[in-house]
Design brief:
- There is one protein chain.
- With 313 residues, the chain is mainly α.
- It has a two-stranded antiparallel ribbon with strand order 1-2.
- A hairpin with a 2-residue loop joins strand 1 and strand 2.
- Helix 1 packs parallel to helix 5, helix 5 packs across helix 6 and helix 9 packs parallel to helix 13.
- The longest helix has 31 residues.
- The chain is globular.
- The two termini are 41 Å apart.
- The relative contact order is 0.18.
Length: 313
């Protein structure tokens, strides 16, 4: 029972963190049609800048300042990079963001080194929030969940209840009409790209102390983001939310399940491995946990290419 409860809590936390990352990527794709391969690099940059600013000041200053810096850098990337290569089509954009990811990683390694950083949890949140089944749950993880849920609610309200949100939504589907009404669509694109990068930066700051701030953190989460975007549906924010929670629960529960095909078949009295199953007979669900999201991605592409809620391929 304790495993199920903690897997549910951790799955919700991990899923919401993934949503904060995937929401920015989804907005960028919805508006600009760009699958930004450097999106996870902005997440990494947010973690590193958050660490450095927290060393100079404190964590709370870093939580606000680091995402702003990352957002400004993201807006500059769109204005002086993506906008220039846009005329070469999607291939040019993909190659640009792919190269940008490597560039950011090298800059990070040159500036902070290759070793993991000691990004500490702030003292005010360094305690046990509650105890379940004689196991304590850190307060900082609850803080991560609160921040992620708050961002989700704020993003939902901004996009559905404010004038800015209405303009952004209109620019997603009818950019020419929005431009005819007097709005600067290229500037809107730049702001959305910057906002997406800032969301990644926030995720980096709150995840850095828990998921380890190191140069490989972008490569670790980057592929999962594209799984979420495709599974949820390209361009669908609601789909990204559902897919984020789905992937979060799948991965946390998979890690907690230490059973293999041999254990399952043993319930039916089959104790010997058939020859054609000998290689996977003793492999546990926890061991294949990291590849389960990619198996789901393949199934979605085969049976529902538009994703769970997406409307376009």
């Amino acid at each position: 029972m304790d495993i199920i409860v903690f897997a549910l809590i951790n799955g919700l936390l991990y899923g919401m963190l993934l949503f904060v990352l995937a929401s920015g990527l989804t907005l960028i794709f919805s508006m600009m049609g760009v699958l930004n391969f450097a999106h996870a690099s902005f997440y990494m940059l947010g973690a590193y800048l958050g660490y450095q600013i927290s060393v100079w000041t404190d964590f709370w200053v870093a939580l606000f300042v680091a995402p702003i810096i990352v957002g400004i850098l993201g807006a500059a990337v769109e204005r002086y990079g993506l906008r220039t290569v846009h005329k070469y089509g999607h291939l040019g954009e993909l190659l640009f963001t792919f190269g940008l990811a490597f560039f950011i990683e090298e800059i990070v390694q040159m500036s902070w080194g290759r070793s993991p950083l000691d990004f500490q949890v702030p003292d005010i949140l360094n305690f046990t929030a509650f105890t379940l089944f004689e196991t304590g749950y850190p307060a900082f993880r609850i803080f991560m969940l609160v921040v992620s849920v708050s961002i989700f609610i704020a993003l939902l309200l901004v996009l559905t209840k404010t004038r800015i949100g209405l303009i952004v939504q209109a620019a997603l589907v009818h950019p020419e009409m929005v431009e005819m009404l007097g709005h600067n669509v290229p500037k809107i694109f730049m702001m959305v790209f910057g906002a997406g990068a800032a969301l990644a930066g926030i995720a980096g700051v709150i995840a850095g102390p828990v998921l380890i701030t190191q140069p490989s953190m972008a490569a670790a989460l980057g592929p999962i983001l594209f799984v979420i975007v495709v599974v949820g549906g390209l361009g669908s924010l609601t789909g990204a939310f559902i897919a984020s929670l789905l992937i979060g629960f799948i991965q946390t529960f998979a890690v907690a399940i230490d059973y293999s095909l041999a254990d399952l078949m043993g319930l039916f009295g089959v104790m010997e491995s058939p020859v054609y199953l000998s290689d996977i007979w003793e492999v546990t669900v926890a061991q294949i946990g990291p590849i389960i999201p990619y198996m789901l991605l393949i199934l979605i592409l085969v049976f529902r290419p538009a994703g769970l809620i997406g409307k376009r391929l």
